[in-house]
């Protein structure tokens, strides 16, 4: 009982401390940076001057410990639309990454550091508007020992962590030739690149099953298309007579699993308890999706959806 009281007290002190700045908005986030409740939050987001009308809003995020985890600016105070410099921090206070955004897309120079403040890499990121993707060039790279292995866009890249590893050649800033490594702890891959473009790849799962692919990853998609999904939600969302005048948004998240089923729906920003439950019912009743793939293997993907209620 004493432990629960202490935990609650610490929580209230922490949240109230960040909420002292008048005009700002405080939001609690879970480990996936989704809006959550007081009980299981991992981060605290502060949007400064929230009540003002501005072109750009300063956004600060903090670890539960109170240490800063991120600072940036956003065009939209209710939905992160990054513009300009974003800096991410390790919990020890050292910089983790410094990036530049244009219209919420990575664009420009990006610098990364290791946890002990040793520089890790310098990259140039270019947004390809025609193909709707980012082109990432590795210009400089240092290993954990501080040895530079890529100089001016040419050299060998090798990064090994507990769960992942990547090894290969960089030419003119882009992947070239054979790359190999592991991901998700027990999966391995070997891929062939030409001027940064994936030519082919083979991945192996924990049971040594092989998967051939020519696309690194694909997003989940409703069998009948995303437009059909939105139409289904709009048509089948039932609003009781006493709530028809209400207007606002319900924010819901769910997982599209490896079989294409919608599972674990959860309200991340409540609007009305009755309408929240209706949102969960409608989303759960939709038919199968085409599941996402990563390196040829089906994977679970978290999906976020705002449901807008216009009111009568």
UniProtKB/TrEMBL annotation:
Keywords: Signal. Residues 246-307 form the TonB C-terminal domain. This is TonB C-terminal domain-containing protein. The keyword Protein transport does not apply. InterPro entries: TonB_C (IPR037682). GO terms for biological process: transmembrane transport. It comes from the Bacteria. The lineage of its organism: Bacteria, Pseudomonadati, Bacteroidota, Flavobacteriia, Flavobacteriales. The keyword Signal applies. Residues 1-19 form the signal peptide.
């Amino acid at each position: 009982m004493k432990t629960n009281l202490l935990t609650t007290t610490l929580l209230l002190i922490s949240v109230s401390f960040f909420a002292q700045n008048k005009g700002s908005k405080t939001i609690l986030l879970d480990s996936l940076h989704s809006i959550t409740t007081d009980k299981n939050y991992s981060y605290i987001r502060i949007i400064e001057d929230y009540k003002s009308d501005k072109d750009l809003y300063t956004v600060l995020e903090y670890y539960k410990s109170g240490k800063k985890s991120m600072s940036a600016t956003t065009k939209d105070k209710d939905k992160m639309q990054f513009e300009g410099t974003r800096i991410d921090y390790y919990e020890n206070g050292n910089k983790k990454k410094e990036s530049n955004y244009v219209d919420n897309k990575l664009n420009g120079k990006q610098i990364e550091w290791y946890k002990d403040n040793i520089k890790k890499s310098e990259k140039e990121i270019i947004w390809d508007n025609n193909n709707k993707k980012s082109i990432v060039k590795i210009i400089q790279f240092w290993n954990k020992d501080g040895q530079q292995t890529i100089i001016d866009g040419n050299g060998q890249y090798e990064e090994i962590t507990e769960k992942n590893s990547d090894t290969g050649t960089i030419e003119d800033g882009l992947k070239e030739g054979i790359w190999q490594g592991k991901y998700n702890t027990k999966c391995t891959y070997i891929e062939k690149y030409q001027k940064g473009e994936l030519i082919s790849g083979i991945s192996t799962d924990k049971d040594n099953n092989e998967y051939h692919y020519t696309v690194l990853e694909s997003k989940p998609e409703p069998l009948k298309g995303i437009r059909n999904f939105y139409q289904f939600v709009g048509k089948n969302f039932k609003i009781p007579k006493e709530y028809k005048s209400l207007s606002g948004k319900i924010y819901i998240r769910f997982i599209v699993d490896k079989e294409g089923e919608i599972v674990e729906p959860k309200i991340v920003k409540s609007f009305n308890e009755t309408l929240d439950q209706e949102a969960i019912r409608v989303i759960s009743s939709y038919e199968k999706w085409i599941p996402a793939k990563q390196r040829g293997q089906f994977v679970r993907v978290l999906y976020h959806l705002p449901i807008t209620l216009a009111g009568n």
